[in-house]
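As described in the Methods, two query proteins were run sequentially through the folding procedure within a single session, without resetting any intermediate state between them. The first query and its resulting structure tokens are shown here.
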Amino acid sequence: MSHTVLPPFRDERPTRVRRRITFVALGVCLAALVAALATVLAGLAGAALASSVAGDPDRSGGLVASGSPLQVTEVDEPALAGLDARLRDALAEAAADAAEQGIEIRVTSGWRSEAYQRRLMEDAIRTHGSEAEARRYVAPPEQSRHVTGDAVDLAPVDAQYWLIQYGDAYGLCQIYANESWHFELATTPGGVCPELREDASDGRAPATG
């Protein structure tokens, strides 16, 4: 059986027509790429808007990234910049003295925006099951000493214990018995720290140095 050998295909259309088809194909591809890019950008914008509406905290609201506590010298960070200047100065002095003894004081939370504090309160209610229980650990924005810039949370544990022992020399005091990390400027340097409160639900007016 013989086979018919077909000649190689040759596009007999005029060159101008072939070019037009090529340009059309390129235009379709470009339009598809633009549409895909627009979809991606719209998705990112939507996610950012949803995050904003949901009240997700960020650095501008005082968030300190988990696992990345601040050095007390990072005063340009909102969490430190928003602190009362006297508290910030006392903390810097204490940190310098602690460093001479091999203790590094880091800040895990300082000033917080009202929105950030409200988000923490909402999270605590979900975690602990009721507002009453959540109040033992988180104060509402209108009562939070973090929102007013008068409180800091510190790490690591050896820094907390060092300040519990020596903090009164700088006016820095542990405030709540259940929070060894929470300190406020609650006495004058060299003074006596106030009696510990059981937890953050204690409604007494804050002691100030």
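Immediately afterward, the second query was submitted; its sequence and tokens are:
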Amino acid sequence: MRKIIVCIPILLTLSLIAQIRVDCSGYYPTVGIGTNPQPNFYLTTSSRVKFDMGSYVGLIIDPSAYYALALYPTTNNHGNIGRSDRAFREIWAYNYYDLNSDSSQKENIRPLTNALQIVKGLRGIKYDLKREVAMDKTITDAGYVANVEKSRKGRVGFVAQEMVKVFPEAVHYVDSTHVYGIDYTRVIPVLVEAIKEQQIIIEALQ
């Protein structure tokens, strides 16, 4: 005698109030947190906010700092903004940015020599940034594409692979992406000393 087993599916419907809502329908995804949240995320606070990522890696947003707002890492001289293969397109500000240059933080200070020889070995170029580097191919917004197309052309600078042979102190290499970069601010002291060396030569010929 055979046994016949009949399975009757039972559908259970659970009605829950969403606590986190992610909206990816637009060009820029939005996140909402809370009871019946809207797809926007707002954080209002009068004290510091710390994003702790473990060990000594973290980020602090400080609304009580000088000039009302500061963003800084939990550990001095640590962290990056962007990557060699995921860089920001533009950074805007009303004022300049500072590189720490206090004498109390330096040691083994010595003259910069052969600056004119270094400058003579540099080659300034004009170039266009490759389209696949300047913009992700998945972006289709016409206005954005037009702005990127305009900004990626007619740039001026140096080639890092050439500069590393002449002035390696201004060049860095990222192993993970195999990309070279140049710290253009490090070229300024070389230019200053090169002008001074050249002026000595000019005055000697007068």
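Residues 3-18 have pLDDT under 50 and may be disordered. We note this only descriptively and draw no conclusion about the first query from it.
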